[in-house]
From TrEMBL:
Cross-referenced InterPro entries: DUF6113
Keyword terms: Membrane, Transmembrane, Transmembrane helix
UniProt entry tagged with the keyword Transmembrane: yes
Transmembrane segments: 21-42, 48-68, 75-94, 100-128
Name of the protein this chain belongs to: Integral membrane protein
Amino acid sequence: MSDRGTTRPPALAQPFRPPSAGLAALYLALLVLGAVTGVAGALVQPGWFPGGLLLALAAEAGLCLGAARAVGRRGAAVAPAAGWALVVVLLTTSRPEGDFFFAAGSGSYLFLLGGIAVAVMCATLAPVRRPGDDAVRRGA
């Protein structure tokens, strides 16, 4: 016999709750911190190639994964990655005077594409908070 009337609705059927003001402020701070990391990485990566490039990408990975582990949500990894990407894309545009921030070399392209790859990996590896998750291990 089935007891369908006594089960809880699935997690996806629960209503959406917007984040609290504190969590939104934390995500905004992480977005700004990601932007600062992007600017610092853009300044460091051409200076000591390839060490500067590796240092810049390690800083982004450390920020994204560290924020995700500290907060326990994927959004905490996505917020600094979005700030990093926004600043780096804005730095790649040329100005009317013809000046630009990134040279047309392999290091700049590795920084741009490597940073995007690091952001995707960090957001994928970030811990996921499951609704209704309790301390009991399921399926064991």
